[in-house]
Amino acid sequence: MAFIYLSAGFAAWSQPLCEEANLHKLVIGIDHVPIVVRDLNEAKTLFSDRLKFTVKNGRAHEGISNFFVKFQDGTYLEFITPLDSSFAIGNYYSNFLKHRAGGTSLALSVKSADSVMLLLQQCAVPFKSNANPIWLSVEPSGNDLFYIEYRNKNWKEREVNTTHANQSLSLKSVWWISKDPAKYISNFTKLGFINKGASTYLGIQAQVLKAESSELIVVSSSEGADILGNFKSPGTEGIFGFTVKVKSLNIVRQLLKDQNLIIKGNSIIYYAKDYNFFIVFTE
């Protein structure tokens, strides 16, 4: 996607219209997460053949190629490899790969991209915008997040693309890690999440942010050190995990029995080490 700057200059979120309550009223939930990889075919083999997800092929466009893992509730993971850095989007993912592979940003589905842009303008927050026949997108600068509104509100992915052998149903949570989690908690609550307070997941102290039914689980690097130690890039900051809701954990155990799963309480964990994230399967 080629983004266009529609606002300039940066100011603190000081105006009354810039309170977090305004943006959260526009947010429907986490829509998808782009994940950049070096070898798209290897990633496809992992997710389709080994982890038993159904994969929807994408296409080459704007300097990238991609594929999707889509869920029944409309959420999805998008796997991307850059092909041509002369395109803006290809260049972005090429630069990201210089640091690591993995999740790059959060895409939040919104009721009205125009309303999001108006609010960001009123708040003097710089952003980029893109429009095409399928969606409108808005990206506030420097926040690892963008908003997306689909033009056809009634469109649904075909069932064949959202039915998985491992019986996955939805992307329930995204995990975020940082040496400075307070900064991201503050930013994300301004950008549409609601802070639900502290909780413990997988024995890890975390802060839980909500966007409707979606969760963003924010963890400090010290709390998540044991998880990071499993990754190819243990210094990962940003997106480092996903919780995927499934119909049956027993099916996951049976189908993925040769995949070095970790059973922890009512969860099954798989480390995608080369991609610097883990997947938590849960009912």
Automatic annotation (TrEMBL):
> Source organism's superkingdom?
Bacteria
Q: Which CDD domains match?
A: VOC
Locate the Glyoxalase-like domain: which residues?
30-189
The name on file for this protein is Glyoxalase-like domain-containing protein
- Source species: Ohtaekwangia koreensis
